[in-house]
Design a protein that fits this description.
The complex is a heterodimer of chains A (306) and B (434).
Chain A lengths: L1 H5 L9 H22 L10 E7 L6 H11 L5 E5 L4 E6 L5 H15 L4 E5 L2 H28 L2 H25 L5 H31 L6 H36 L5 H39 L7
Antiparallel strand pairs in A: 1-3, 1-4, 2-3
Helix pairs in contact in A: 2-6, 2-9, 5-6, 6-7, 6-9, 7-8, 7-9, 8-9
Chain B lengths: L3 H28 L1 E2 L1 H4 L1 E10 L8 H18 L5 E5 L3 E7 L4 H9 L4 E4 L5 E4 L9 E5 L2 E7 L3 H13 L8 E4 L7 H4 L9 E3 L11 E4 L6 H13 L4 E11 L1 H54 L3 E2 L1 H30 L4 H33 L2 H34 L21
Parallel strand pairs in B: 1-13
Antiparallel strand pairs in B: 2-4, 2-12, 3-4, 5-6, 5-9, 7-8, 8-11, 9-10
Classes of the chains: A alpha+beta (306), B alpha+beta (434).
């Protein structure tokens, strides 16, 4: 396998416009999906209450609804999960302390397992999402600064573009598949952000190294050659690393149970997007920008080396 | 000529590490505090409102609220309560493994401000006039009642003198718990006994000058009397608490999540190990050793920090293994490249190590910057995630870069690997002739 990867003749830079077009199309599609379907916000983000029930026996929605009805509650929806022995009841209102007590006592006795109950007013989760986003924006500035010092600031910008590309991608897929978005989703997006930066920097590092070996990098074609060479050289690493992380995320998705599944799915999607953007977007973006920078420089020779 | 000493040293180190981990890992995992999503429990986010008008929410006020809450939780016997102040007006309470969740919620959010009022709701005396920590449950005709002790008996004498002179039915002393502006005795008294908001309304027929007062309640159950006593002794809250977010996880749910996630973790990590062994051979085996050490160290550091392991935390840990593997993969791929270019095992190891170091360094520092910002600006679970990320970056740098290099170095320097690129997963045919 490794020798095949090493000898790949694939030109990563030549087809850049196709990659950009694919990403752009997906982003537009994702944007449309978000605009049309919105996100399936869990109660963390929309006010209300959620009751998770578990039973030793198979449940039916009618049975569960009836139980709530008898208690004097009218859940907005009741859905079954976990192969039929779990049920989720959603309420539009925030259940009060006393109501929670009644529900807990009733179902603990009935099904022999204490239900999970969450209530929330939406500003808590919205605050958290806002907070995460602001922190991410500040972190981006920090990353660009560091990359500007160690590499080139253009590469920093390309890395940030890749980062937001990946984060957006997860959100879009969650919108399309209507998977419930809760607070752990934020953690998943942040994990992917971390992975995406890591992945992009590794390829940029190889580009930096190969640029040093090049005697003259004067045109876009020179840049393209270096980028292509670097991507081919790091390809085995890129694939192997994402494979190992995918093993972990896939195991969580398949065996990890209900509570963690949305989180694990977000990771899986993000990993694919992250690898795609590192291989096909980030370096190519930089190559295009660098090419333009070189062209400009050619016509204004008075400018000193950057 | 093979230097067997270094290979022996390698196996000794591995045995030592294995012994250390094998004998202590059970203790370490037992000490790890599980979040409420893994063992059941509940979490409430309160919005703090001043109890009196014009009162300002200062940090001091929030701090004293937190310590009052801790006192109450002690009553519940929860071993690891976590109470944190968030922002300017929020307090988060996390109680894992609490047995009676309903009782706990009630106990937490009650302001527990006791007031003694006339029938037209004028305040005569409040909790501040009671001796602190002196409430107890006594029995009056086999009926549990709560007895409180007064600071100034003469004050009580004055109050009872005035009330006793009023004509019935106004000669009553109404005892309220958490009287709210707008509550009216005259309205409440018309309701059925179990819906009345005040605790009791004894008739006062004479001047009382003793220093204790009995709250007989709307006949108390023993447990109710105990709760009231505990609340009064823990002290009232200086503020009002409104639940704005709450989540509770049943113990069975938590246990199941823990089992499943740990199981998924073993499978995921097992697959990673197999892949490394298959693809990278000897260095892969070393990666398995250093990754095991990585997981162990993360757990140890987690204990040191008294961090609480939550569901996303376990996921981050498993994912962290994947990311720690990256440092190994970068190094090994680099060594393979050097081997293919025709270098000897010794010099490929050196060059590969040196060149991969800057790659790993820059990639880690960049991620660290992101994690650092998330830690500094993030709140609650964003911050928790950042802690996990920073820990795993630092630990993986130690194990995957430094540890892995030492262990592989022992093999390379023993010269046992000379002319055996196959052990690195490199075929003879791939090596360029110089």
């Amino acid at each position: 396998m490794s020798s095949k990867i090493r000898d790949t003749k694939f030109d990563f830079v030549k087809h850049r416009n196709k990659f950009f077009a694919i990403s752009l199309a997906l982003i537009v599609l994702g944007g449309l999906a978000i605009a049309i379907f919105g996100l399936n916000l869990g109660i963390d983000f929309s006010s209300g209450s959620r009751v998770d029930l578990q039973s030793d026996n198979k449940l039916t929605t009618e049975e569960v609804s009836q139980e709530f009805d008898d208690l004097g509650f009218a859940p907005e929806s009741v859905t079954l999960s976990g192969g039929g022995d779990m049920a989720v009841a959603a309420f539009k209102d925030e259940l009060g302390k006393d109501e929670i007590a009644i529900i807990k006592d009733h179902f603990t006795e009935l099904y022999g397992a204490e239900p999970n109950i969450s209530t929330v007013s939406p500003d808590v989760a919205v605050d958290l999402a806002k907070n995460a986003f602001i922190a991410l924006a500040i972190a981006s500035v920090g990353i660009i600064l560091y990359v500007a010092i160690r590499f080139e600031w253009l590469q920093g910008v390309a890395a940030i573009v890749a980062l937001f590309h990946d984060a957006f991608f997860i959100i879009a897929v969650f919108s399309i598949l209507q998977i419930e978005v809760n607070i752990t989703f934020i953690a998943a997006v942040l994990t992917i952000v971390g992975y995406s930066i890591n992945d992009t920097i590794v390829t940029f590092d190889r580009i930096r190294e190969n640029m040093k070996f090049e005697k003259k990098v004067k045109t876009f074609e020179d840049v393209a050659r270096v980028v292509n060479k670097s991507l081919v050289q790091t390809l085995a690493r890129s694939i192997n690393t994402v494979l190992t992380v995918v093993f972990a995320a896939a195991a969580l998705t398949i065996f990890g149970g209900e509570a963690i599944r949305p989180f694990a799915i977000a990771l899986l999607i993000g990993l694919v997007a992250g690898t795609y953007s590192s291989l096909f977007i980030a370096s190519q973006l930089w190559a295009v920008w660098k090419g333009k920078q070189l062209k400009k420089k050619k016509f204004t020779p008075a400018e000193s080396e950057v | 000529m093979v230097k067997k000493g270094r290979i022996v040293a390698f196996f000794l180190i591995v045995l030592l590490l294995g012994g250390l981990i094998g004998t202590t890992v059970m203790g370490v995992t037992k000490d790890i505090k599980l979040g409420l999503d893994l063992q059941g429990g509940f979490e409430v986010l309160y919005e703090v409102e001043p109890a009196q008008e014009g009162q300002e929410l200062s940090q001091d006020l929030l701090n004293s609220t937190v310590s009052a809450l801790y006192k109450r939780i002690n009553v519940l016997g929860v071993s690891e309560p976590r109470i944190t102040i968030e922002g300017d007006d929020r307090i988060r309470v996390q109680l894992a493994g609490v047995k009676d969740q309903n009782q706990a919620r009630e106990l937490l959010s009650t302001q527990a401000e006791l007031t003694f009022r006339t029938t037209d709701d004028k305040e005569q005396m409040s909790g501040a006039d009671l001796k602190e920590g002196a409430a107890k449950v006594v029995f009056d005709n086999n009926q549990p009642v709560v007895q409180v002790t007064l600071k100034k008996p003469e004050q009580f004498a004055n109050i009872t003198r005035e009330i006793s002179q009023l004509p019935p039915p106004d000669n009553r002393l109404v005892i309220w718990l958490d009287y709210e502006e707008g509550d009216s005795y005259k309205e409440e008294v018309t309701k059925p006994a179990d819906e009345q908001k005040f605790i009791s309304d004894p008739a006062v027929n004479q001047v009382l000058s003793q220093n204790t007062v009995i709250i007989s309640g709307p006949p108390f159950q023993l447990e109710e009397a105990e709760n009231l006593k505990d609340l009064l002794n823990a002290g009232s809250l200086p503020v009002k608490l409104d639940e704005i977010y709450s989540t509770s996880v049943g113990a069975q749910f938590g246990e199941q999540s823990l089992d499943k996630t740990v199981m998924a973790g073993f499978i995921g990590i097992g697959l990673i190990f197999l892949f490394m062994l298959f693809y990278y051979r000897l260095p892969g085996a070393i990666a398995v050793v250093t990754l095991s050490v990585y997981i162990y160290l993360i757990l140890v550091v987690f204990n040191w920090m008294h961090a609480v392991l939550t569901l996303p935390g376990i996921a981050a840990l498993i994912l962290g293994v994947g990311m720690a593997v990256d440092a190994n993969i970068i190094t090994y791929e680099r060594i393979k490249e050097e081997l293919r270019s025709g270098k000897s095992v010794m010099s490929a190891f050196k060059a590969g190590g040196r060149r991969s170091f800057t790659t790993i360094f820059d990639a880690n520092i960049t991620t660290l910057i992101a994690a650092g910002v998330l830690f500094a600006y993030g709140t609650s679970s964003v911050k928790g995630f950042a802690v996990m990320l920073i820990t795993s970056i630092v630990v993986s740098f130690l194990t995957a870069v430094w540890g892995s290099r030492i262990l592989l170095g022992l093999w390379v320097k023993s010269r046992a690997l000379n002319k055996k690129p196959g052990l690195f997963g490199v075929k003879e045919s791939e090596i360029d002739e110089l």
